[in-house]
Amino acid sequence: MAKHYNLNAHFGLNLSISLIFSLIFTLILSTTVVYLEVTNQLKHLNDYKIETIQIEDKEDFFNLSHTQANSNYLLTDDITFSSSDLEKINAFDLNGNFNGQGHTLEFNGIDKSIFNSISKNSTIENLKVEIKGVNLNDSKLSGITLNNYGTIKNCLVEFEENFSTLSTYNLGGIAINNQGEINQCFVYIKVDENISNLSSYSFGGIVTNNLNEGQIKNCAVISISKFLSENSADYIFTHSPSYIDFGYVYSFNYNQDGINNVFALKECLYSNDEFDENISYVELDKFYDSDLYINDLGFSSAQWIIKDGELPRLRGNTL
């Protein structure tokens, strides 16, 4: 009997083999493309890896504005600046994390904020700032930053000013404009009464303006402004400024839900924020009670030294 060659079966077998090889080739090609893409992305990420920069002295601090945009900073020692350092300090935009590790930056006679702005995903923590002996005219000054979009936590600001002449001025204990979060911070700020030529003045114990989504919570502030205390009416009418906007916590608050659990010293007769139900106005003795910081504000002993009869202090080496 003659054998019949099954052409269809042969063609089908070849087609199946070709299809299998095609699928294998496609899989290998796809895998290679994915590998190359992942390798390229890893290289790209490595090119922009976050660098950790240690700040040991004034020279390191002066060079901050020249460092990589996305960096982490560790303050490893206390640093004191004088008026002769003014031109070397360049406020810059922080895109990263700044850990003060409980150390102090002290500024004497310097009218510049440390940072121009803190970006949305950036954090400043465990930092003490002391500002003393500032004489300003037509300026803005804050303890830490002009504009906060990120997070400032576990920071302490001590602010004492002695102005000789002043016309237009904005002051914020921690920030001028806050659209981020300020949490578990303590501010002691005192403005002397020796001021002349005052035309307009905005003062906020923690911030000048709490804007949009700005949050201030679990903080305490002692803000004393002698020229707006017992003789505030006499001072205002004598000097006839165009306006004075004063607040224990803020000068203006554009986010009515942004203040939560804040304690302020009830010192002056006039304040823009004195009727804010989210601010507790207390006598000075309350600030020397450890319960305020431990129970009311939740300050952690890992970052803070809290003792009865003393104001809170930052603990060193908090990393």
Structural summary, described in words:
A hairpin with a 7-residue loop joins strand 24 and strand 25. By secondary structure, the chain is of the alpha/beta class. It has a 19-stranded parallel β-sheet that branches. A four-stranded parallel β-sheet has the order 9-13-17-20, with no helix packed on it. The protein is built from four helices and 25 strands. It has one domain. Mean pLDDT is 79; it is low at 229-242. It is elongated.
Write a compact overview of the structure shown.
By secondary structure, this protein is α/β, with parallel strands linked by helices. The protein has helices at residues 7-47, 58-62, 232-239, 290-296; strands spanning 51-55, 70-75, 79-81, 92-99, 104-108, 115-118, 123-125, 128-132, 139-142, 145-148, 151-153, 156-161, 168-172, 175-178, 181-183, 186-191, 200-204, 207-210, 215-225, 243-247, 250-253, 259-265, 279-282, 304-305, 313-314.
Total number of beta strands: 25
Mean pLDDT: 79
In oligomeric terms, what are we looking at? single chain
Major sheet characteristics: 19 strands, parallel
Summarize the topology:
Layout: H1 7-47, E1 51-55, H2 58-62, E2 70-75, E3 79-81, E4 92-99, E5 104-108, E6 115-118, E7 123-125, E8 128-132, E9 139-142, E10 145-148, E11 151-153, E12 156-161, E13 168-172, E14 175-178, E15 181-183, E16 186-191, E17 200-204, E18 207-210, E19 215-225, H3 232-239, E20 243-247, E21 250-253, E22 259-265, E23 279-282, H4 290-296, E24 304-305, E25 313-314
Parallel strand pairs: 1-2, 2-4, 3-5, 4-6, 4-7, 5-8, 6-10, 7-11, 8-12, 9-13, 10-14, 11-15, 12-16, 13-17, 14-18, 15-19, 16-19, 17-20, 18-21, 19-22, 22-23
Antiparallel strand pairs: 24-25
